[in-house]
Amino acid sequence: MKNGMITKLKSGENQIICFPYLGGYSSAFLNFASTINSDIEVWAINPPAHSRSNLKLLDNLDSLIELYYKEIKGIIKRDSIFFGHSMGGIGAYFLLQKFIQLNEIDVENVTLVLSACNIPDEFKTNNYSKLNDKDLIDHLITYGGIPEELLKEKSLLEYFLPVFRADFKILEDSANLKYYPLKNKVYFMWGECDDIVPINAVFQWDRYFLSDIELIIIKNGQHMFIYDKATDVVNSFEEIINKNMKNLTLCKSKK
User: Fold this and answer.
1) Mean per-residue pLDDT, 133-156
2) How far apart (Å, rounded) are the C-alpha atoms in residues 45 and 18?
């Protein structure tokens, strides 16, 4: 772990690198890491100024991706899975794009799992980062991921507002970044009761990929289903890993 930015939550052979939602941090994936198959290596990102990170808060996606790249290129495995929930999906997408563009590491077999994630264009005109404190808090509550203790202590929630504003600014900034359709394997994990990300989001992501997107529906899942439907999420990942291993075996046998 460097500067508290990337944390190894569990050791194993196959690798998953987790990218947190808006305002989130590495500890958000502790339960995921402890529940998933014992042979899975799990890493989680702790963005600058989130939780225990001592890095300066960023509100620019390009700079954030550059930091991610420097940290992750030293630990990434050839068949890694990038798992990005909500805002984390956008970060995971553009990081994978950067790996492909720089071509320093073979990422052809890296799999991307977008979870409850709208496309970058969705944030082009939102300007949530410019809301006043009260309206911003009200909007954050609609996401359903604010801990109960923060909701009861609004003064404490206000303390974290700069982090939420910066993250919203990054999302808004993502709408202006150039993207190049990726050919990597991609899954879209969607909660059927998600009020933030509609089902048509999966079809909107089509233009960001050359490969087909495989939809995984989390039954009765709301936007933060990684918490209330954690078992379903873990089961889905174990199926993804099994599929990847079978595909790799088939490719090797053909050679």
Assistant:
1) 80
2) 6
